[in-house]
Design goal:
This protein has 10 helices and 15 strands. Strands 1, 2, 3, 4, 5 and 11 form a 6-stranded mixed beta sheet that branches. The chain has a 5-stranded mixed beta sheet with strand order 8-7-9-6-10. It has a 4-stranded antiparallel beta sheet with strand order 13-14-12-15. α6 packs parallel to α7 and α8 packs antiparallel against α9. The longest helix is centred in the C-terminal third of the chain and has 15 residues.
Length: about 300
């Protein structure tokens, strides 16, 4: 069985995502996203499952940065997981007893209305993960009275669900990705996503437009774009792109090739099936056949056959 690292400890939403993505895999909990990806890079695991973005909070910047730097990893699958938070406490704790809450920063933000309304005098403290928060609350003598976490974390650590669905939005979804060391890509399905990172050669007027044009003129639709600082000073950025299609598609391959020509570096992060099953709307003159016909026409001209 493959072994997959994930953001631990037991009881995180990431573990739930891993169970759905790879039910038969052995699970290796890691202290944080960086540790999970490092386990995949050095061979302690065959791959990893990590959160990439949330429908309410946006990108998980730690994951974006980890995929952009260090030894390359490839995304091979994705999952959209509905996120439902529970308020978990030790047996016998009442709502009025709660003075200190422990949870992940993302949960702090996504449950802000609940805590302000129901627990206005409680202090909310950031934890490495929601499951780590539940694990800490379950310890005898813990300084925390409650954790906001997945219901499964309460089952793991023997906590009581004092309140369910405490998130401010009932339709919140987190996108998780499964990554592995570079190898063969998943085959095109007709409903695929490609991810990559592009580094500007230099900052000049229209630099971002030049990159976007490589996609637009080939009919490639972007589903996400994020800018991240390079660390080389204010104003220096690189860009994460998610786009419709597979690198095996002519329009996608040519767009990435064009991006490579104008950028200092392009890191390919993978082509893999979309979790939502949506297929792209392919514009006129951008099918694989259109690109093949154009290439054949150009070849005839160059050889004097046209």
């Amino acid at each position: 069985m493959p072994k997959l690292a994930y953001l631990g400890p037991k009881g995180t939403f990431t573990e739930e995502a891993l169970r759905l993505l790879a039910p038969q895999a052995d699970r290796l909990p890691a202290a944080n996203v960086s540790a999970a990806l490092d386990a995949a890079r050095r061979g302690a695991a065959d791959g990893a499952v990590v959160p990439l973005e949330n429908s309410l909070e946006g990108a998980i910047t730690t994951t974006l940065d980890e995929l952009a730097w260090g030894e390359p990893l490839l995304i091979t699958a994705e999952l959209l997981l509905p996120v439902e938070f529970s308020l978990l406490t030790r047996q016998g704790t009442r709502l009025g007893d709660i003075k200190r809450i422990f949870t992940h920063p993302a949960a702090i933000t996504q449950c802000r209305n609940f805590t302000a309304r129901e627990l206005p005098d409680a202090t909310v403290v950031a934890a490495p993960s929601t499951a780590a928060a539940a694990q800490e609350v379950a310890l005898p003598g813990s300084p925390y009275d409650a954790a906001i976490a997945a219901r499964i974390a309460g089952e793991h650590y023997g906590l009581v669900e004092l309140a369910a669905n405490v998130g401010d939005r009932s339709d919140t979804v987190t996108r998780f990705v499964q990554v592995s060391r570079p190898g063969p890509l998943p085959q095109p399905t007709g409903s695929d996503r490609t991810s990559l990172v592009a580094f500007l050669t230099d900052d000049h007027p229209g630099a971002l437009l030049e990159m976007l044009t490589e996609f637009a003129v080939r009919g490639v639709n972007l589903t996400r774009i994020e800018s991240r600082p390079t660390g080389d000073g204010i104003g220096h950025y690189f860009f994460h792109f998610d786009l419709e299609g597979h690198v095996a598609d002519a329009r996608v391959g040519e767009a990435i090739s064009g991006l490579h020509r104008i950028c200092a570096d392009v890191r390919f992060l993978g082509s893999y099936p979309r979790a939502d099953g949506l297929s792209p709307q392919i514009k006129r003159a951008t099918t694989n056949g259109d690109f093949t016909e154009a290439a054949d026409w150009l070849a005839r001209i160059r050889t004097g056959q046209a």
